[in-house]
């Protein structure tokens, strides 16, 4: 850089270059001569030339997001602007715009990209434990699966409790499109389709701040903002990582030898001879795990020459190490008037079970250009293509998850001879064994590779907008935003083994299309009056439409072909189309006086086509205020207090997610009547009424109150405390009808629930001014839910999840008999029987056991602890998640403790503690062949305290130094990192199963296994050019 001083009309020409902290030239930086109106901007190389009067010696350089700098002119000027981290953190993305945090009046949490650096394949899983009041439960380790996402508890009994996901201002659909995924292994997780590397920040709106989204905001709103370009030369970033995953914890099952002896002794106790007991035991297993026919003698000991030759660890065979490859490339840059960000990514994620797999191809483009001084244009587009193979789940015999804990170890994986050696086929290959006592013609390792359960989803989310500056302070913005989903699914049962032979091969094909678009027009007026009074007004109108199309075709007799053209018989095809539209009018007013006193109010009216004429429109509103007490004169001089802000809000919002199309109508419409050839009169088809109309059906309505305080002191400690109370009224409820009506129930707005609780955030910059920087942040949530009304009903059993709904109780309250233990004299199981006067006696007859309330599945307290430590070029992040209180029912373990109720099904090692002699003290009842004592039926025997602490993530990264010699001319930054997920879980109870209590879900109940979240280790590299 050269300094040239040519005396022309007493002016001096000054030139130089402006850099950012990263060493890159700053494009579009403002350069002004102090004390004058003379100024210029830097060019695409960060260079500037400015003429200043000879008596002026200083210039000021500034750029948005950087600290301004005033310098004295000199030769060889190189000016570096530092990032204004305070300015960057001042603004937060909220509904339909941004707001200064200092003036924000609601309750919301922003999670920056720094906290989302854990190498998760999905954003929602990375949020677990990060935000107070937000519970993220990964109910399956199936790659690409969704999560149970709760913001301040559950506000509905039967509708969705998932929050609204808004991506770059676009409200998206979080519907479940899959027809072939089982249970919690859904493939339509919207957050799994977004590349985590593209995310700039996530804001979670938890109170009335969400009211501007109206009828979709009752469960909170998650606002996702993706990265955009910055002015400067093109910056290329490459990120690649490799992950290996494996099962975390297993059930401790009986060996085939132990199980053989247990069953043999039971047959002997039933009076069977030695030979019969041996043969019956082998018949129960359908296999002999020993090398001779009668391996046990009259005393239950091995005879000479007997040797165990089959002891299959089915969990080991089914759960295997899995690999994940993830690579992403982004290019960003811009000029003073334009910016762009483009990225593309590839994810190939294996599951830890035989056929679980997920591939994702993604691309993203964000652009913006100031076409003129008054017109800005922009667009963003996000494309993803996902291919997901899922496992069969639940109690199906084809489910490897079910079979992993139910197939006895005496069943061999392959066909074996008397010595346990595999019998080879004509080609010299091992042959899978399909004979077992649990599921006909099944092999949990072979079948997943013979059958197909595949979903392919193409999703496009985008927007195009134009923003016009009408006059000082007033802007008009119009935006068109499509959200398009194409989902094709393929389910094939092979003709040789499993479920398929009955059909000689079966094929089902599903095609669903959901085309949604949002057209939004807003006016925004922002003005500061008399320096101290700031006003921000927003008014808008929005039109939203969704057209959903479903098509099914299937056939049998397809043989080895996976094409319907080969089917010998076609199954009844099915198709339907639904359409929904909604128009909305909304507005918001915000006022701030010196950023000390802040007020805000919003109003939204939604009109939806899915309601009857009586309730097509719903109006939702909010009002809130905040007082920055620290800015008052009486606190200004309190040096140790850095910030003190009080907030209060009240508002309403709605939920329409559980409203099916045409529920208000009883006339013939798609999805209302069952139309089939079976309902006919002569040659004419008929119709059967399957629902009653309810023209009064309306939105589920929610009222939310919040009061909170934000604080920081000693320039080291910070935190917040919030109390909230939300009431959800008019909840959808299937009210039972008398049988003579011909229908079981009618859907009504009949129930009411309330949630209240506290949210606490505490943070500390433990080591701030030392070479080692350490920040620790804890969040804790205390939430209680209460059912207020069930339309006259006091008790409603929820048998699917062993719950009971009671007015005054929780919707998550367990309901089951109380387990007493084992009768030491007889070995019988014992439960409590409670008479009308409350007297408690024991009974060994399960039919006489009294069902009682046993506590709730939701925790008393939950949250996370996040540690960030840095030293020179090293960064260490540690995330600990915890759950205190609550109950979980382990139905999987219950199935393993049958005491002979389920013959042949595998047993847990705890069955070795079964009662055998009079006076014996044990917790396991006697084992009896074909037992009928219901000892493993629903009771508190298998109900556990859910308290646990999980080491969720540890990530260590190293930033390579900038002095890399010749590489420095090519590479502007590089980082390598290693990471571990789900490393260790501590349970307060004697937990028996996988180190993943989340697969039991919010309900805390799972009778059949899902894929547990694996333990994972990742190594990765990030390079910026």
What does this structure look like?
The protein has nine helices and 50 strands. α3 (256-269) packs across α4. By secondary structure, the protein is mainly β. It is 6% helix and 48% strand. The strands form eleven sheets. It has a 22-stranded antiparallel beta barrel. It has a five-stranded mixed β-sheet with strand order 10-15-16-13-14, with no helix packed on it. Mean pLDDT is 87; it is low at 1-9 and 664-680. Among the domains are: 11-83, Immunoglobulin-like (Sandwich), CATH 2.60.40.1120; 87-234, TonB-dependent receptor, plug domain (Ferric Hydroxamate Uptake Protein, Chain A, domain 1), CATH 2.170.130.
Mean pLDDT: 87
CATH class term of the domain at 87-234: Mainly Beta
Q: Main sheet, how many strands, which sense, barrel?
A: 22 strands, antiparallel, barrel
CATH architectural label of the domain at 87-234: Beta Complex
Structural class by sheet pairing and helices: mainly beta
What name goes with the CATH superfamily of the domain at 87-234?
Answer: TonB-dependent receptor, plug domain
Number of helices: 9
CATH topology of the domain at 87-234: Ferric Hydroxamate Uptake Protein, Chain A, domain 1
Rough outline: globular
Radius of gyration equals: 33 Å
- How much of the residues is beta strand, in percent? over 45%
Count of extended strands: 50
Which range best describes the helical content: under 10%, 10-25%, 25-40%, 40-55%, 55-70% or over 70%?
under 10%
Alpha-carbon distance between the two ends: 24 Å
Stretches where pLDDT is under 50 for at least 5 consecutive residues are 1-9, 664-680
